[in-house]
Amino acid sequence: MDEKKLRYYERKYERNPVEDAIKDISNKWTLHILRDLFLGKSHFNEFQTNRKTLDNKSLTRCLKTMEKNGLIMRLTEDDEITYHLTEKGHSLNKVFYELLLFALNNDKNNEHYNDYEKEELKEMYLDILDLK
Question: Quick one: which of 51, 64, 100, 121 is 20 to 30 A from 109 by CA?
């Protein structure tokens, strides 16, 4: 790209849309909760399963932020509260999968996952994220 065009774009689009998108998912617990929602979990206590450090206050704050950002909706029916992905939240499925691929492809020395587990995770997430 030539220098003049680059300066024009930098001035016109000073705000970075990627940064805006990352802000929506940058909370410590947001990706965990998104994964749980893709897995079909919808209740407050389900999001805390196997997460000893996720206290009620942190989870409440995270869910409210996710709702404010339009990623989830909170429904109350017969005194039961459930959380569900919005269209915007569900549209993160491809982003979520690309982040998974990024993580697995950069685990060069199989520090976290062996080759079999990497392939299994790819298949599992294709199914979970409804990308098949």
Answer: 51
Contact status, residue 95 vs residue 129, Cβ threshold 8 Å = no
pTM over 0.70: yes
Cβ contacts of 46 within 8 Å, gap of 6 or more: 36
pLDDT digits (tens, 9 = 90+) for 8-55: 887 877 777 888 889 999 999 999 999 999 999 999 999 999 899 999
If you search the block for the tokens 């199989």, which residue do you land on?
A: 110
What's the token pair of residue 44? 């407050």
Q: 72: part of which helix (H) or strand (E)?
A: strand 72-77
How buried is residue 98: exposed, middle or buried, by Cβ count under 10 Å (0-12/13-18/19+)? exposed
Query: CA 49, 51, 55, 60 torsion: positive or negative?
Result: negative
Q: Do 59 and 53 meet the contact criterion of CB atoms below 8 Å apart?
A: no
